[in-house]
Amino acid sequence: MKRLAITLLFLLSLPCGMEAQGLWSRFLLWVREGNTFDSTYIYQRPAGFQVSIDASLQRALVDLQADFTTTCYDGEGSVVATDVPSQATIGLSNNLNGSFGAGFAYGKLGLGFGFYSWPAEAKKSSVNLNLGYQGHKWGINASLSGFQHQSTNTLTIGKEGDTWYRHTESMSANPGTVFHLAADAYWVINRQRFAYTAAYKCDMVQRHSTGSLLICARGDITGMVYEGDDRMFTATDFSSYATVYNSVGVGYSHNIVFVHRDAEDSCNNGLFNITLNLTAMPVLTYSSGIIAMPVDGSDNVTIASSITPNAIANAALGISLGQWFFSLQYRHNFFYFRSADKMSAADLGMSNSDIKDVTVNGLMQSWRLMTMAAFNF
Predict the structure, then answer these.
(1) Each residue's pLDDT tens digit, 249-286
(2) Is pTM, for the whole model, over 0.85?
(3) Contact 90/149 with Cβ under 8 angstroms?
(4) Domain check: are 4 and 134 in the same one?
(5) Are residues 238 and 151 in the same domain?
(6) Are the C-beta atoms of residues 340 and 304 closer than 8 Å to each other?
(7) What is the residue-wise DSSP string for 254-303?
(8) To 10 degrees, the CA torsion angle through 138, 135, 325, 316?
(9) Exposed e or buried b for every residue in 195-209, given b needs 16+ CB within 10 A?
(10) N or C: which end of the chain has fewer CB within 10 A?
């Protein structure tokens, strides 16, 4: 009986084992296929150590708007109007800043860092870091950056002509710390003939013009930490905030090859290529929110967002010249936020019961223009 049971278990395990072996074989085949491509369309430089320097301009555009209703009182404390339409805004727009940086890479792995050189009035030094793997099949890149800047705040109660109308506009007294943490991932459909990285880094060269659909994903945390008595919105007790969102989408990328001349030897002597890449990636932000942090250290307040359409756009001009590579790159991120539900002051952790029907919406954008020179050893 014991032998029969062992025999039955062995026979039953054979299909499972064969299936597992088949899955493993398919996985190994998938990995190997990721390193293959049509050499008539793509030229891969011999693996080598790369060093790059870059200079860039970047700007973050943040416009958050809170619409709500409130109750107005006269000087004696008597109610003069209820459910008065009101609005508070946060603005962060005039923050163009420049940086210099350096990068190190081997093949598809890369590490870069930089420091902001201006504006000089920033009280603290700011840096940016990025680490990633960028292949012609898939890639992922993580970046962290921060800089110092002041924000503008407005508060409008009622409409012009109302006896209770009030409008104030102010700028934060201290430059707050703006931080940005992001992770991007892409998957190339036409990976056999399309080198997505050709205009962005110097490991692969596109020989003939072609394009591909891309599957993309992005996670992003952007926020601001205020200093001193500055606050997120006028007359609130939020000392800092962060927007958190996750997006997925499908886009299209195309390489336009203006000039291509093959290398004459393994040292890439004679190589000459000029390629322009244009990429548009519409994404659907399926999960997002604003996390506001009260100054008194109490629990954070989360404002959830409804699902919104957003976009990522890239463009780059890459020039391969022997062992040298030069690139001019532009990247623009769009993110629209809209709170899912109306809230009260209590929902926001505020004690003012006159504030209700609060909705928050806004547009967060960031762009970066970078020029880079790299040498492949």
Answers:
(1) 999 999 999 999 998 888 888 999 999 999 999 999 98
(2) no
(3) no
(4) no
(5) yes
(6) yes
(7) EEEEEEEE--SSTT-TT-EEEEEEEEEEEEEEEEEEEEEEETT----EEE
(8) -10
(9) bbbbbbbbbbbbbee
(10) N
